[in-house]
Write a structure and sequence with these properties.
- By secondary structure, this protein is of the alpha/beta class.
- The chain folds into two domains: about 5-185 and about 335-445, 3-Layer(aba) Sandwich (Rossmann fold), CATH 3.40.50; about 190-330, no CATH class.
- It has 17 helices and nine strands.
- It has a nine-stranded mixed β-sheet with strand order 1-2-3-5-4-6-7-8-9, with helices on both faces.
- Strand 8 (about 345-350), helix 14 (about 360-370) and strand 9 form a beta-alpha-beta unit.
- Helix 8 packs antiparallel against helix 10 and helix 15 packs across helix 16.
- It is globular and about 60 Å long.
- The chain starts with a helix and ends in a 25-residue tail after the last helix.
């Protein structure tokens, strides 16, 4: 591996060379973003790659990596989360480290931290599009640009592909879209089960909030200005459920509550805490900062099953009706319309406990209703994690998507699976596509409910 000073010097030289041959051919005379500067690449990135970093005009940090043997294609990355904290350059380093496989496979990679923390999809889509223009203006004009969204970022990428098209930009900005481990049903449906978790947890535990604390509607997450921390919430959860202990060391009452949540909400015990965090702090962000204090989340009409006494559970849980105006506002920002004019390829680990596989069924319905169903291919794997499936999976997906874009050869789950095995010799085992799998409808996983 090169020493850091040599890599920085090489990075700067290539930056100047590429800037000279770059240029923004989107014909946007108002575009006036500063050029990125040389940066150290994360250790996971190939040693001969070039990295550039910067802060855009809205305050979003970004990081760019270009391999020495660049294939001419750009992967524009929209990260998951979202974080509720202010953006930092370390977030971009973390993302590039995770997705170094793209650079290893010959693709340039660019990722934005987004300008702000919080659940705001359209703003993140705008930041992603701005980075695309920065790359074209100051680095190079790629042969193809693939928009990759991961987890929550898959919703960002889907929104960006709808917002920025030939009609709105003047040229087609994205040639294809890759959505992995995606939260793809939009904010008004993807988070229903977290509202359900809040009310079922409170029914069982009655400590979030405690009876001695000022009550509030659980579907707002927390009142605006509340200062509860994740550590505070974890302490309450462990008090009631004992998630900090092996199952054998929990009390009988704790284990019974855990099993009720697993059965009713259909999530494993290992993800209860994280979903309660999101249903607390992210809901607080949405309601206090995005929808004017009204909640877009409701439980009215939902019937919960799987407990030892469903009648008692449904009679005892708190019920909330989603605010119609809040639903409209939140949906306009987060819900996909399916009007994506370019090929879309998705991948999802079937057992993903964070972004349910049934969300992909909803996205498929949305694409078909929008008349874009023929531009969607979905794939599913039997192994992986929510954050990352496997090294050979992603180059296989990228190759299939580019072949579709450039040659018009629409992939199938079987063709993607076959391509994946070709990468295992150099990238290690990890191909686990289930070529015959199709997810059930979202309503089979999450209780249907009344909607305004």
């Amino acid at each position: 591996m090169f020493s850091l000073p040599i890599r920085l010097a090489a990075s700067l030289a290539i930056t100047l060379q590429l800037a000279a041959c770059g240029g923004n051919d989107d014909d946007d005379e108002s575009f006036n973003e500063a050029a990125p500067t040389a940066a150290a690449c994360p250790p996971a990135v190939p040693a001969d790659a070039t990295c550039l970093a910067g802060v855009d005009s809205n305050g979003a940090h970004y990081l760019i990596a270009r391999p020495a043997a660049w294939n001419g294609h750009l992967v524009l990355h929209a990260h998951g989360g979202p974080s509720l904290d202010s953006p930092t350059p370390e977030r971009a380093v973390e993302d590039l480290t995770r997705w170094a496989i793209m650079v290893r496979a010959g693709y340039a990679w660019a990722g934005s931290t987004f300008r702000q923390g919080g659940v705001e999809v359209r703003a993140a889509a705008e930041d992603t599009e701005r980075l695309r223009k920065i790359f074209r203006a100051h680095v190079a004009i790629p042969t193809r640009t693939i928009l990759h969204g991961q987890s929550w970022g898959a919703g960002v990428a889907a929104k960006a592909a709808e917002m920025f098209t030939r009609e709105t930009v003047g040229t087609q900005p994205y040639d294809g879209v890759l959505l992995t481990s995606g939260v793809l049903a939009g904010g008004t449906r993807s988070y229903d089960f977290r509202t359900d978790l809040r009310v079922v947890y409170q029914y069982l535990c009655n400590n979030h909030p405690r009876p001695t604390e000022t009550p509030y509607a659980l579907n707002i997450g927390l009142p605006a200005g509340a200062t509860m921390t994740q550590a505070d919430l974890s302490a309450r959860v462990n008090e009631c459920l004992g998630l900090n202990k092996p199952a054998a060391q929990r009390s009988a009452e704790q284990q019974a509550r855990v099993q009720t949540i697993e059965s009713v909400i259909k999530i494993p015990s290992t993800s209860i805490q994280s979903h309660l965090n999101w249903g607390t702090f992210h809901f607080q962000d949405v309601v206090s900062k995005r929808t004017g204090g009204a909640s877009p989340f409701g439980t009215s009409g939902a019937w919960y099953t799987g407990s030892s006494d469903d009648a008692a559970l449904n009679a005892g849980v708190l019920r909330y009706r989603a605010d119609a105006a809040a639903v409209q506002t939140f949906g306009a920002d987060t819900d996909p319309t399916g009007k994506i004019p370019v090929p879309v390829l998705t991948a999802k680990w079937i057992s993903d406990p964070t972004a349910f596989v049934e969300l992909d069924a909803h996205f498929r319905n949305v694409m078909h209703l929008a008349g874009s169903g023929d531009r969607l291919v979905q794939t599913f794997t039997t192994d992986g994690t929510h954050s990352y499936i496997s090294h050979p999976t992603y180059p296989a997906l990228m190759g299939a998507l580019l072949q579709w874009v450039e040659q018009g050869t629409k992939p199938t789950p079987a063709s993607v699976a076959a391509a994946c095995t070709g990468f295992e010799a150099t990238l290690g085992a990890g191909c686990s596509f289930n070529t015959g799998y199709a997810p059930a409808q979202l309503e089979t996983r999450v209780a249907p409910r009344e909607r305004p």
